[in-house]
Design goal:
The structure is a homotetramer. By secondary structure, chain A is mainly alpha-helical. Chain A has one domain. Chain A has eight helices and two strands. Chain A has a two-stranded antiparallel sheet. In chain A, helix 6 runs parallel beside helix 8. The first copy, chain A, is elongated. The interface between B and C is large, with 41 and 42 residues.
Chain lengths: 220, 220, 220, 220
């Protein structure tokens, strides 16, 4: 991390970047990924309706709406927690920028497994399991990337507004560990019931939204 | 970050987030949703023209232009009013972030009912009614989400720059109620005349643009 | 413009909004519109190549690259000039927000005429003329919207950092008038030579980039 | 706006724009281009699977994932280096805005060669070479645009926070020259092995990420 070229470097932590552009770029990626999900909601072709009504064709697309809602919720929650995490930091170093890029990779790819799951959730069993496992695996990747980013943010106390107390760090690590294991378990669940896998992700997103970073924030 | 670092918390409301990233993320979603609408304007395939001229094929697509314009106007108005609402607040709490996420869900989904309506506005009656009802229902959802966000923003006077006077709050609630009922009425209108439903939304958007949040703004 | 609710309103111009969110939202729309253009560059289907090589199929798509470049340049120039115009203002009123929304409408629709022109530039004459006329007309609309926005920005000197001197205003109006007439002339040119129409827009964009708002900026 | 309002203009360089909107617009384009890449990950049609499983159809798409990852990495690195470069400048002039627009053109077009390469990486040799050469050429264009932007940023020392020392400028120029030659070499490599060409770009992106602008940053 020789990116400051400071001859002394004594008082300068290797954290050269303000958080503002990291937030601006991340907000852009989150906002686009969450909005691109709508492109996966297909309008049935008039010629493809056959004898069916549009209402019945739309109702038949329920897996697409379900997957859309869960992925929207997941990305929204990650954004809120990302927001909370960034507010801890005064400056970020290049390592954090890369960890952030890793998170953005796993976030911006979410429309792909979402579309996959929407298409195959009610297909023949084997393919529905494959699609669900890919979806769950992408959530595992996102969960790992978020944990790595948290570690990058909190690694050097000098880059934070207020040091995170050790017990809060331990609690946060425990949480991330448990969360990661739960996500991993949904990969297995994907092979039992793709619909249950999706429902569990909806529930976990709601749980995370109320809880995840609360204990990592500085005491007031 | 001394805005919530009070050890006693006596004067610190449970509003931990600055409005700036909420605005940045929301601006991103609004901007993307409003710009993705253009993907619903189809270029007729040269092979699909048959004997027709391109001009006639383009003219035949008028429902797509009409739906595009109305949805563009609606999203633009919501953005302006969102802008005005955010300027009331000093800080936002987690509850407001979630209410905002609810609004963004209803905004970012708008390209889907827009495409649906563009495709089916002049289809056989039953399907045109379905598409129009879905469009109107998505506007009802958006209207409800906006009202909930307004309540979340104004719930705790300590998070505002200037308290909203009670009579202004009552007036705002009356407005939101009347607006919601009007939106709901367009769901019924969708089954009578999809085109009239769309025209009413254009008119309501114009009305809201001049009026909606005027009475909720603090006196200066 | 009763949107300030100030009982006296004496010292408060009807300009309640900071320029920052107007800029953020506009930047988002400009950035998305300019980037969505890439979706119009089609990758030839491997099955559709027939006996041709990919290189020849790609070369055959030159109208798409030409239209892409011109539209990219046009949106980029509008963004730069929008940037310059916004830097004149201290505050914006609701009328300016609406004029800005009008400009964003004409900007965000540009991918549609671009795709249309890319598809039909070398089609049979009649359809190429139609596509070129639609493209030129969308530029006329954009030019009108930009002029209206300039008027909205400069209407009330109290909202500006420094008043624009009258001679600069007259010069700017003359420029906008001449620019608008040139754009209008390209609609006619579209019926003579669609390719020449596109080339003129490329040249005009380059001319505007060096010149348009230079004379409207405050004297130093 | 007293930053250039000097009546004499003696100390005011011809740099009229703050870097903030340049960064906001650029962040938007980077964020959208990097997120649009996901649209190139196709979900196989259920009807198109034939006898194959979805898992095998997804595995068969490995060139798309590889190209996605490399392009994501490349755009992410350019963003990080753009971020570092912008932090050098206090103000930007119109020439820099245009150089930046040139970079954004080469960045926002990346989803096109990426899709091209994903489609043709394992096609018949001749077409794979064409697609790979187009991909490599687009990286050459991006590299040239980045170098030009660096020159525009550092041309006038008065627009920088701290002058870049001459030896750092020479080192940066040497780096850009060597980088450009390496990129150029990958165009040749594209005709030998498209897969190797892509792998080299992945490695170069990783190298750049740790190194490129380190020596151009001011000492603190």
């Amino acid at each position: 991390m020789n990116d400051t070229a400071s001859p002394t470097g004594a008082s300068a932590p290797a954290a050269d970047f303000s958080t503002s552009r990291l937030e601006a770029f991340s907000d852009g990626v989150f906002a686009i990924a969450i909005t691109l999900l709508v492109l996966d909601l297909n309008v049935p072709e008039p010629e493809g309706l056959g004898g069916r009504s549009l209402a019945s064709a739309l109702a038949h697309q329920w897996p697409a709406y379900f997957a859309y809602l869960v992925s929207f919720l997941v990305i929204g929650i990650i954004w809120i927690n990302h927001h909370a995490m960034c507010s801890l930091a005064r400056r970020v170093d290049r390592r954090t920028l890369f960890a952030n890029l890793g998170l953005l990779l796993t976030v911006s790819v979410i429309p792909f497994p979402t579309r996959l799951l929407a298409t195959y959730l009610v297909a023949r069993h084997e393919d529905a399991h494959t699609a669900a496992a890919v979806y769950a695996a992408s959530m595992v990747a996102m969960s790992i990337a978020f944990s790595l980013l948290f570690l990058a943010f909190t690694r050097d106390a000098r880059t934070l507004h207020t040091p995170v107390p050790p017990e809060a760090m331990r609690a946060a690590r425990r949480r991330f560990g448990i969360g990661g294991l739960c996500y991993l378990a949904t990969v297995g669940l994907a092979f039992l019931s793709p619909v249950a896998m999706l429902a569990v992700h909806a529930l976990m997103a709601l749980y995370y939204c109320f809880d995840q970073l609360a204990h990592a924030r500085p005491a007031r």
